[in-house]
Amino acid sequence: MNPIGFSLLSLVSLALVSIVIAQERAPHGLIYENPEAFSPSAYNFFHPSSRKPETKDPCVASKCSPMPLAAQVEAAEIHESKASTPEGGTKQLGAGGVAGIIFGVAFVVLLAMGVYHVRVTRRANMSRAKANGAVQLDV
Q1: What percent of the chain has pLDDT over 70?
Q2: What is the DSSP string of 22-74?
Q3: Which end of the chain, N or C, is surrounded by fewer C-beta atoms within 10 Å?
Q4: Euclidean distance between the first and final Cα of the chain, in Å?
């Protein structure tokens, strides 16, 4: 058998082996998954907001007094006043401010890299010049 025929035969046999091995594997992926329904208890577990809220008053059985109405109103007023007026008049950082910070940091990093490159290049050139005798040392 000539070398070209032997090469072709080995290439075909390797290709067939790899195809057979690939077909033995079980198909996988999202398209091969079978959909399964949730049980009602699992659905209730993953969707807690869809449950009906209990309307039972806990104070009816023990005859305890509910929270005073004045405390509820005072708490509501405190939360509303904090939400409506920012203290110190601070302003939120917008998209332009975030972009400015990002570009500023990028500029500083690039500037530092440029300074480092210049220093290393000058140091290498000075050492090369000293080795060649082109630079006169301080006398």
Answers
A1: 58
A2: HHHSPP-SGGGPPP-PPPHHHHHHH-GGGSPPP---HHHHHTPPPPPHHHHHH
A3: C
A4: 81
Among the listed residues 61, 59, 60, 41, the one whose alpha carbon sits nearest the alpha carbon of residue 51: 41
The identity of residue 39, as a single letter, is S
Write out the H or E segment, with its range, that includes residue 89: none
Distance, CA of 76 to CA of 68 (rounded, Å): 13
Q: Give the tens place of pLDDT for each residue, 84-104.
A: 545 555 677 788 888 999 999
Is the backbone of residue 63 left (phi > 0), alpha (psi -120 to 50) or beta? left
Q: Would you state the structure tokens that stand for residue 88, as one six-digit string?
A: 């110190």
Closest residue by Cα to residue 116 from 128, 124, 127: 124
**Maximum Cα interatomic distance, the chain, rounded to a whole number of Å:** 103
CA distance 98 to 122: 36
* Structure token pair of residue 85: 């007026």
Which of the residue ranges 19-28, 55-64, 125-134 has the most confident prediction, judged by mean pLDDT? 125-134
Give residue 98's identity as a one-letter amino acid code.
V
Task: Return the structure tokens found at 129.
Answer: 């010049």
| 50 token code pair | 């869809």
